[in-house]
């Protein structure tokens, strides 16, 4: 095992030690670790991606935690490159402000380039971001969104409160799943939150991952896969109260949770019980449902292979669309890498780089006009309609690997 990996033997939410393997995807390099040509001679470590089920509380998490410094010191992902995400955050902010009649001071954990905070600032809030990606944090600060280049901890929460006062709102989007020490996060939220304040976060929802086979949400950076029932017990243990839980659309299916201090002024929504009961009926706390997911993913691999084999027999070229961490998971699980000529992506930060492990060149979509491949596998399958519509000149075959394998001529 690499020195950069810590093996977790207890549950991140309840501390229990009764963990069983739910699903293994094998060894996969860090999904967003795209490299420059000058670094192609350097090897990239592939880490075990193994999902564990806590038999005590139903939490699902990875057994291995890669050193966060390996992931975030030179982190390049920006919110604005994800289609529709900035607009989603603006609508999300509108909903929170209107529903809870809040205003004042907002802190975002994992604020990235500050897209959501910028919207709050536009509406008169005092804002502060906390994000360990050094370059992105500095860029956000220089753009007017003050951002601490730090990991959020209880000490950071206390420090922010001493200098700026309590936060009426703390938000965290697509970040809690990436953090090992969730006890420290909860303690930091409790220390920073005003008596009538709220902690609102959005994260990939385990129920959607399992129902839809969202393999592109399973990778080393995501060490936790959340559901309502374990989260409710976790917050209770920390003197906090989960008062609402809603299903939302980003990332193929997400969960938005609203938390207040224990005994806070707002009533608990019936949504919490409703979703917890749905999870129980579906069997999210039972190993059997993950064995079913394993068979589902194996079936997708089985359905995809004849398409690859036919193209190779016909000496056709095959590319994939989507240079992302989720795309890397799909490339490795489906073993597509050796059969591809390139990845296609219009993210300027990725064009000209090479993919983790397989070292496939990342080329812009203009290749569809100059040297179109015969087959394109849409790793960015959620945006298939928009991508296909934007490139009517392409006459090859589009292949969707999820939620079921489908060929589109």
What do you see in this structure?
The mean pLDDT is 93. The chain is an alpha/beta fold. α2 (85-100) crosses α3 and α5 (154-164) packs parallel to α6 (182-192). It is globular and about 65 Å long. It folds into 3 domains: 5-64, no CATH class; 79-285, Rossmann fold (3-Layer(aba) Sandwich); 306-408, NAD(P)-binding Rossmann-like Domain (Rossmann fold), CATH 3.40.50.720. The strands form 4 sheets. Strands 8-7-6-9-10-13-12 form a 7-stranded mixed β-sheet, with helices on both faces. Strands 16-15-14-17-18-19 form a 6-stranded mixed β-sheet. A 4-stranded antiparallel β-sheet has the order 2-3-4-11. It has helices at 68-72, 85-100, 115-122, 134-142, 154-164, 182-192, 206-212, 228-237, 270-282, 287-313, 325-333, 367-370, 384-390; strands at residues 5-7, 19-29, 46-54, 60-62, 64-66, 105-109, 126-130, 147-148, 167-173, 193-204, 224-225, 240-248, 254-261, 318-321, 343-344, 362-363, 375-378, 397-400, 406-408.
Keywords:
409 residues; alpha/beta; Rossmann fold
In short:
The chain has helices at 68-72, 85-100, 115-122, 134-142, 154-164, 182-192, 206-212, 228-237, 270-282, 287-313, 325-333, 367-370, 384-390, and strands spanning 5-7, 19-29, 46-54, 60-62, 64-66, 105-109, 126-130, 147-148, 167-173, 193-204, 224-225, 240-248, 254-261, 318-321, 343-344, 362-363, 375-378, 397-400, 406-408. It is of the alpha/beta class and 409 residues long. The protein folds into three domains: 5-64, no CATH class; 79-285, Rossmann fold (3-Layer(aba) Sandwich); 306-408, NAD(P)-binding Rossmann-like Domain (Rossmann fold), CATH 3.40.50.720.
């Amino acid at each position: 095992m690499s020195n950069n990996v810590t093996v977790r033997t207890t549950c991140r939410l309840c501390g229990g030690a009764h963990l069983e393997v739910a699903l293994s995807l094998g060894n996969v390099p860090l999904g967003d670790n795209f490299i420059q040509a000058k670094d192609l001679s350097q090897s990239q470590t592939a880490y075990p991606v193994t999902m564990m089920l806590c038999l005590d509380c139903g939490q699902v998490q990875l057994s291995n935690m890669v050193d966060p410094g390996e992931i975030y010191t030179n982190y390049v992902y920006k919110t604005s490159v994800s289609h529709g995400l900035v607009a989603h955050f603006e609508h999300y902010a509108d909903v929170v402000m209107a529903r809870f009649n809040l205003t004042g001071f907002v802190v975002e954990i994992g604020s990235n380039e500050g897209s959501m905070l910028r919207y709050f600032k536009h509406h008169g809030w005092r804002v502060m971001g906390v994000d360990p990606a050094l370059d992105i944090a500095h860029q956000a600060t220089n753009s007017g969104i003050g951002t601490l280049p730090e990991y959020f901890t209880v000490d950071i929460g206390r420090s922010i409160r001493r200098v700026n006062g309590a936060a009426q709102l703390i938000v965290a989007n697509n970040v809690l799943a990436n953090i090992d020490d969730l006890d420290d996060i909860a303690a930091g939220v409790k220390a920073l939150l005003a008596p009538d304040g709220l902690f609102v976060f959005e994260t990939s929802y385990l129920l959607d991952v399992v129902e839809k086979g969202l393999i592109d949400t399973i990778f080393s950076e995501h060490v936790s896969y959340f559901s309502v029932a374990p989260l409710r017990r976790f917050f209770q243990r920390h003197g906090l109260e989960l008062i609402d839980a809603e299903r939302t659309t980003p990332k193929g299916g997400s969960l938005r949770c609203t938390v207040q201090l224990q005994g806070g002024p707002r009533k608990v929504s019936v949504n919490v019980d409703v979703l917890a009961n749905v999870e129980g009926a579906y069997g999210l706390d039972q190993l059997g449902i993950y064995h079913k997911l394993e068979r589902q993913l194996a079936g997708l691999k089985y359905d995809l292979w004849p398409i690859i084999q036919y193209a190779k027999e016909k000496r056709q070229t095959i590319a994939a669309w989507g240079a992302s961490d989720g795309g890397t998971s799909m490339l490795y699980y489906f073993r597509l890498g050796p059969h591809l000529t390139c990845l296609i992506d219009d993210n300027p930060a990725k064009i000209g780089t090479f993919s983790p492990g397989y070292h496939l060149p990342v080329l812009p979509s203009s290749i569809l006009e100059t040297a179109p491949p015969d087959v394109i596998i849409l790793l960015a399958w959620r945006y298939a309609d928009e991508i296909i519509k934007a490139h009517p000149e392409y006459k090859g075959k589009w292949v969707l690997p999820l939620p079921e394998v489908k060929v589109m001529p």
